[in-house]
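SAMPLE LOG
Freezer: B-3
Tube label: C17
Construct: single chain, 310 aa
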Amino acid sequence: MKVVSLFSGIGGLDKGFEDAGFNVIWANDFDKYAVQTYSANYSNPIILGDINQIHLPDIPDSDVIIGGFPCQAFSMMGDQLGFEDARGTLFFRIAEIIKDKINKDEKPKAIILENVRALRTHDRGRTFKTIERILRDDLGYKVFVDVLNSADYGVPQTRNRTYIVCFSNSEAEFEYPEKKPLEVTLQDRLEQNVPAKYFLSDKILPTILSNGTGGYKAKSEIDLPVARPLCATMAKMHRACQDNYVTQNGKVRRLTPRECARLQGFEDSFIIPVSDSQAYKQFGNAVTVNVSRAVAEAVRKTLEDLGEWE
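STRUCTURE (predicted):
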């Protein structure tokens, strides 16, 4: 079953869907370093460029569209209905792409979108209501939504993300993948013989381990069994109340890019061709492969039940 991937990043969503038997035929991202990493790991084409600048006819028809789209502020929506509510946002571009396929009688059978947990509560819930209304009323999809935590799918990282799953068939019944007890810890994912550059100096250590200053106070803990959410700005090294630090050989260090990859469900065969700074950004932005795979398998089951799996 053919898949088009939007806002692909380094392919966390794509990998999960490929593992579940889908065929990603086309991908896109605007970040040249993400495209470099994606190209080093996947055989399907990925197009570098702003999705708003890519001509709609150049996006191939597919059975499924997936995407972890950025959540821009919907501050100008007002009380309008339909597409006008989301104009100027990247979600609107997704809607345009789907609408173009519908006009060509090539309506995708399923749409899977991933975003931050706060999407459902942003702007007092109005943002998500607009997204849901467009998907349901303007585009004709049956919409399901839930928040999934990576730690419930075999990865020792607390990472809650909103997953929107849509089907063109109004008879579709969809169940989000079952949660499973976590059987591994962050310590199980650590590398050995780590280079010295990842260990904290005596000079920076007090700052990293402090509980904050001024009006900002938060408990700094290290060696957590389940990692805090990886963030795109890990290269800057925040305090231990925000980033993850571990003790090894009696010294405190940050996580390596490979460890971040493991915490996002990427296998050690995954190639990291970019600098550490770019790698931290990429894994901080990535979709957890384990969650993507579980969602993809659930989507496949629904399509099979509907007799639409090809």
